[in-house]
């Protein structure tokens, strides 16, 4: 541990400060693609009846350990956990479902059901960075509490696909499965462990360890050794109780009625402990090795496990970084670029003109017009060229001549037509011309 002084000294002597491994800066113009994506998320979620919740970026570690579960990659290897100055164990959130439930309980939101919430923002996982896999990643997601029936599951799947459509992603594959409930899942788990124990010698080392801790997670393995063993493993399908079977059949019926094609993949298990019944994933081959775009499902036991009343719930989390990768590769993101176009460029040719133009610029901006002024006092031609490149439609120019007359020149940057307008009328004149 560094003392505070030593730490400050150490930071001061670092030569090239770079973003931590697995994180990245979002710079303009790319940041406008993020803004577009964020607006799409807000719009689509609102259209489906979800309202935004924002929770802290860090939580008591308990929130995640108790819900995601020991034996999962996230809790065992990926969490950023530290002891704060008050001696508490804190973790940067690796996902947002548990924090949403924590907040819903803390504020008694579950007393009026249904409760439909969405979120978007950064998550943190200590992973090996590679294309599409970061240590600070971004997710949006929704959680729907109170509805046990399959309509909620179907709605969330439909919402996920609508989001893909809205950002221009068309090439993907939706896979669904049912993990059963507290009644029927244990028998499956037993059968699976029995089968895998028999085949233990043929499993990868990681999976042999998981056999004790979290056998279901083996179903998710991408290891070739494991895949061979898994081909002959029992699947949940055979063990589903009658009501789980019905729930799954109804969900598939609802999806079909909306024209949504879903593949039943009995090997989807999701990495977290809290899922029951429906689980689903969307994959895209265009992503390469990290091909999952989103994961979701039902978690009827989660609220109770966190100390709340028994409350059914279902949700999804989609990776925003991967969405943008896909949207860019399909050309859709570029189309939406350049949102914040400058409309008016102020050109002051000397110090005194700049001083006089400041309140005029302010008045123009106050009318809702995107305007900017060059503070570098460059030559007229240089400033006009920059104004043209920025996409502005008008330049407001003041040099000695205009200043003495108490007016400005407004130049239409497309036609080069010029008019002189009195200082006090510039904002009204521009508003009228831009209307
Ligand atoms: P993966 O199989 O890629 O590890 P996961 O099952 O860990 O995914 P979830 O926990 O279901 O992922 O998170 C939902 C989505 O969030 C993923 O489908 C992915 O798009 C995104 N995501 C998760 N972890 C990362 C990460 N480290 N970097 C970028 N995106 C991520
Ligand atoms: Mg992962």
Largest sheet: 8 strands, mixed
Bin the helical content.
25-40%
The CATH fourth-level homologous superfamily of the largest domain: Bira Bifunctional Protein, Domain 2
First-last Cα distance: 61 Å
State the secondary-structure class.
alpha+beta
Describe the structure.
The chain has 435 residues and is α+β, with helices and mostly antiparallel strands. It folds into two domains: 17-184 and 240-334, BirA Bifunctional Protein, domain 2 (2-Layer Sandwich); 341-434, 3-Layer(aba) Sandwich (Rossmann fold), CATH 3.40.50.800. Helices cover 40% and strands 20% of the residues. It has 17 helices and 16 strands. It has helices at residues 4-13, 30-47, 62-68, 73-78, 97-106, 150-166, 185-198, 205-213, 224-230, 242-257, 302-305, 320-329, 332-335, 351-366, 380-389, 400-405, 426-434; strands at residues 51-52, 58-60, 81-83, 89-92, 115-124, 136-145, 173-178, 263-264, 276-283, 292-298, 313-319, 344-348, 371-373, 394-398, 407-412, 418-422. The strands form three sheets. It has an eight-stranded mixed sheet with strand order 1-5-6-11-10-9-7-8. Strands 13-12-14-15-16 form a five-stranded mixed sheet, sandwiched between helices. Strands 2-4-3 form a three-stranded antiparallel sheet, covered by helices on one side. β12 (344-348), α14 and β13 form a beta-alpha-beta unit. α2 packs antiparallel against α6, α6 runs parallel beside α10 (242-257) and α14 (351-366) crosses α17 (426-434). It is elongated. The chain binds adenosine-5'-triphosphate and magnesium ion (MG). Adenosine-5'-triphosphate is lined by residues 95, 125, 127, 132-134, 137, 139, 271, 290, 292-295, 317-319, 321-322. Adenosine-5'-triphosphate (ATP) is lined by residues 95, 125, 127, 132-134, 137, 139, 271, 290, 292-295, 317-319, 321-322.
């Amino acid at each position: 541990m560094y003392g505070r002084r030593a730490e400050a000294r150490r930071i001061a002597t670092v030569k090239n400060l770079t973003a931590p491994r697995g994180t990245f800066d979002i710079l303009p113009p790319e940041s406008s693609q993020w803004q577009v994506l964020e607006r799409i998320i807000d719009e689509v979620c609102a259209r489906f009846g979800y309202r935004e919740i924002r929770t802290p970026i860090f939580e008591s570690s308990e929130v995640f350990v108790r819900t995601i579960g020991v034996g999962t990659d996230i809790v065992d290897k990926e969490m950023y956990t530290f002891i704060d100055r008050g001696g508490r164990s804190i973790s940067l959130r690796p996902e947002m479902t548990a924090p949403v439930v924590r907040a819903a309980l803390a504020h008694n939101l579950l007393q009026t059901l249904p409760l439909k919430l969405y979120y978007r923002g950064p998550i943190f996982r200590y992973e090996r960075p590679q294309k599409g896999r970061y240590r600070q990643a971004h997710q949006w997601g929704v959680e729907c509490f109170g509805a046990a029936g399959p309509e909620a599951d179907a709605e969330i799947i439909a919402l996920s696909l609508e989001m893909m459509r809205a950002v221009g992603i068309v090439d993907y594959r939706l896979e669904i499965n049912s993990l059963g409930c507290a009644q029927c899942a244990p028998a499956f788990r037993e059968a699976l462990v029995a089968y895998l124990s028999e085949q233990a010698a043929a499993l990868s080392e990681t999976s042999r360890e998981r056999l004790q801790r979290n056998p279901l997670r083996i179903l998710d393995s991408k290891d070739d050794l494991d895949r061979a063993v898994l081909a002959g493993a029992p699947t949940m399908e055979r063990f589903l109780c009658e009501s789980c079977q019905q729930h799954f059949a109804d969900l598939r019926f609802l999806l079909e009625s909306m024209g949504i094609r879903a593949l039943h993949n009995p090997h989807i298990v999701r990495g977290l402990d809290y899922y029951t019944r429906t689980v689903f994933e969307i994959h895209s081959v265009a992503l390469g090795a990290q091909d999952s775009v989103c994961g979701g499902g039902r978690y009827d036991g989660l609220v109770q496990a966190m100390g709340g009343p028994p409350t059914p719930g279902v949700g999804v989390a989609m990776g925003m970084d991967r969405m943008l990768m896909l949207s860019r590769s399909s050309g859709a993101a570029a189309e939406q670029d350049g949102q914040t176009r400058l409309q008016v460029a102020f050109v002051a040719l000397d110090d005194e003109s700049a001083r006089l133009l400041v309140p005029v610029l302010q008045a123009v901006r106050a009318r809702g017009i995107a305007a900017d002024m060059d503070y570098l006092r460059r030559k007229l031609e240089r400033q006009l060229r920059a104004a043209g490149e920025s996409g502005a439609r008008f330049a407001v120019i003041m040099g000695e001549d205009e200043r003495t007359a108490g007016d400005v020149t407004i130049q239409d940057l497309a036609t080069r037509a010029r008019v002189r307008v009195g200082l006090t009328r510039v904002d009204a004149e521009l508003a009228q011309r831009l209307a």
